[in-house]
Design a protein that fits this description.
Blueprint: H1 23-32, H2 34-60, H3 63-79, E1 83-85, H4 90-97, H5 101-113, E2 118-120, E3 123-125, H6 129-138
Helix pairs in contact: 1-2, 3-6, 4-5
């Protein structure tokens, strides 16, 4: 049997459980269940849209907009709350935003001074989401 190499690798910032599904079983389910196939197509479309958004953010936005994007993503998509324990180090955030760690630290301080973000150790709150969203949109 020829084994194909995995095309993707996964890492998570929070505790997660992952289960590998045999591709033949997965393909069979897609062929046999149109509702399942439709849901998978929607998930793939959402993932593609997120990838385009990330690419646009990295290539068209200023530093403040990039960092605002990451904070909004963590808030909305991961924790679904405006208050959370940030699992990312400043170094992680710099990698995600293609910024230097120093720039991330400086902008986080700017956001804190402007009361856009409230930081307490690893616990963060986004008290001014409208301003953070505005920064994200304007880039």
């Amino acid at each position: 049997m020829n084994l194909l190499p995995f095309l993707y690798s996964i890492s998570t910032y929070t505790e997660s459980t992952v289960q590998h599904i045999d591709s033949l079983i997965f393909k069979h389910r897609l062929n046999q269940n149109s509702v399942f196939a439709y849901r998978i197509i929607n998930i793939i479309n959402e993932s593609t849209a997120q990838s385009y958004d990330r690419f646009f953010s990295l290539t068209h936005k200023q530093l403040h907009g990039r960092l605002a994007d990451i904070l909004l993503c963590v808030s909305r998509k991961i924790f679904k709350s405006d208050s959370f324990d940030l699992p990312l180090t400043r170094s992680d955030m710099s990698e995600l935003t293609s910024m230097s760690t120093e720039s991330v630290i400086r902008i986080m301080k700017d956001f804190k001074d402007d009361k856009i973000i409230d930081m307490n150790n690893k616990s963060d709150t986004l008290p001014d989401l409208p301003r953070l969203e505005s920064i994200s949109v304007k880039g």
